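For the sake of transparency, this paper describes our internal protein records without simplification. The tokens are whole numbers drawn from a learned vocabulary of local backbone shapes. One such record is reproduced below, unchanged from the form in which we store it.

. . .
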Amino acid sequence: MPVNVADVLSRAAYALSDVDETRWSAQTKLDYFNDGLLEIATQKPSAFSRTAELPLDVGTLQTVPEGYANLIRVVRNLSNAQGATTRVGGRVVTPSSKEVLNDRFINWHDPDVVPYSKIVMHVMADEFEPRKFYVFPGNDGTGLVEAVLAVIPDTVAGPITSATTAPIDQTYFNALHNYVCYRCYGEDMILNGAPARAQAHYQMFQGALGIKQMVEGVANVNTTNIGSTP
């Protein structure tokens, strides 16, 4: 269920004691709400994830398409079955590291040593370039994979109505509420104690993201053994 923008801004206005919008305009709070979406996308990319088909370029170095922030993971190779209109899942793709491949195949970027292929075996992220990643073996330019990508969130435009929603789950309500309050207090040069209040709300914002990430890690189908016996 997507988060309701009007509800978040109303809760923030109440917490700021500014329900009449005398100190911060509706547009100002909406701008901060949109900044909060980008902050969450930066700190927790999985909050804006999407599974997509990703065509591959020739070579080992690949680029995340426009509209996406970075690669989260590659699931499997895809192909077209003869006469079919849907994709057929192929070999799974496992993560690796450039250091491991560099030790085992010092010339793995060279197609004369490791021939390029349509099928991807391993994928490696580039920590210094989030929108770049490597595949092994290098692709021949005909490969297609199923990937989970982090989406750059769309800006929510005003005016806000009771039906306006943002492209993020309702579980991020508290995080966004605290982010809006943090930014409002952070710009206040008059209110006594505003810097401390801003810091408190930012800590709650970060805490909400951290707790959610911890809960997701515990209740994860990849790590939770449902129905297991002690």
User: Anything to note?
Assistant: The CA atoms of residues 73 and 146 lie 9 Å apart. The chain is about 35% helix and 25% strand.
